[in-house]
């Protein structure tokens, strides 16, 4: 049953990966780059575990849990969990982007950042499948939460490069962190809930689906109209970009 839950949960993410790999730019170099980025996204889960553990230990050294369980849980879910994951996923995606052997467009950057997030999401799904029912795994698989967060980070990072507006470079990361942290907090078991947290969790899960749809719309519109497909990041420039 664990294997079935894992495979069912990962199927939508795999489908999205194949779609981006083939639709965005179906040349051999880009397909190879997508594969490497996915694999590095999977491996990034190890760094997330390490960073999250360090932050959790630091948080436990305070007496915040005894003083305010709500504030403690908020910091735990938003910083030790959500921030750790979003920072590592972003670093992983940008690392592959900076090492790209070919020029990259806004659309390419968005796709690669999403692929890195999908890789991490698949690794995380393996852990969830060990103690989560099939029904919840199906919901998680359909929502593809990390895919939506990766889309936000890649979209705004690529937009900043194409428009030259550095002020919005990290807007996607901030939004992904906010949504991710709020979603994780809404699932907290030890926080008093009068139904509001459940409503937030369902709303954000639906938003995850919307973000994936927006990714597909962005991809299709860009391909049909020839928008956002011109190179904005050349191989010689990638080493100069800041993570």
User: Main β-sheet, in a few words?
Assistant: 2 strands, antiparallel
The largest sheet has its strands arranged as: 1-2
Alpha carbon gap, first and last residue: 40 Å
Q: Which of globular, elongated, flat, extended, rod-shaped describes the shape?
A: globular
Helices, by number, come to 10
Question: Can you walk me through this structure?
Answer:
By secondary structure, the protein is mainly alpha-helical. The protein has ten helices and two strands. It is globular. The protein starts with a helix and ends in a 5-residue tail after the last helix. The model has no long low-confidence stretch (mean pLDDT 93).
List the topology elements.
Elements: H1 2-23, H2 28-60, H3 64-67, H4 69-98, E1 104-105, H5 106-128, H6 134-143, H7 145-163, H8 171-186, H9 196-225, E2 231-233, H10 235-238
Antiparallel strand pairs: 1-2
Describe the structure concisely.
The chain has helices at residues 2-23, 28-60, 64-67, 69-98, 106-128, 134-143, 145-163, 171-186, 196-225, 235-238; strands at 104-105, 231-233.
Features:
about 240 residues; mainly alpha; two-stranded antiparallel sheet; globular
């Amino acid at each position: 049953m664990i294997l079935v839950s894992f495979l069912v949960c990962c199927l939508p993410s795999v489908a999205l990966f194949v779609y981006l790999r083939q639709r965005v730019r179906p040349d051999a170099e880009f397909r190879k780059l997508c594969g490497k980025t996915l694999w590095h996204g999977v491996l990034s889960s190890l760094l997330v575990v390490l960073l999250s553990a360090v932050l959790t230990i630091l948080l436990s050294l305070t007496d915040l849990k005894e003083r305010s369980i709500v504030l403690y849980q908020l910091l735990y879910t938003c910083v030790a969990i959500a921030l750790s994951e979003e920072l590592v996923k972003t670093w992983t995606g940008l690392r592959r982007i900076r090492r790209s052997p070919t020029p990259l467009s806004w659309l390419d950057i968005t796709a690669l950042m999403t692929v890195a997030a999908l890789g991490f999401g698949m690794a995380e799904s393996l852990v969830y499948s060990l103690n989560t029912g099939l029904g919840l795994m199906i919901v998680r698989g359909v929502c593809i939460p990390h895919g939506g967060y990766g889309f936000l980070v890649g979209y705004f990072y690529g937009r900043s490069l194409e428009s030259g507006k550095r002020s919005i470079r990290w807007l996607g990361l901030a939004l992904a962190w906010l949504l991710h942290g709020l979603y994780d907090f809404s699932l907290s078991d030890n926080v008093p809930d009068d139904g509001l947290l459940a409503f937030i969790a369902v709303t954000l899960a639906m938003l995850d689906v919307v973000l994936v749809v927006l990714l597909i719309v962005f991809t299709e519109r860009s391909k049909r109209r020839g928008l956002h497909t011109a190179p904005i990041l050349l191989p010689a420039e990638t080493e100069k970009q800041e993570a």
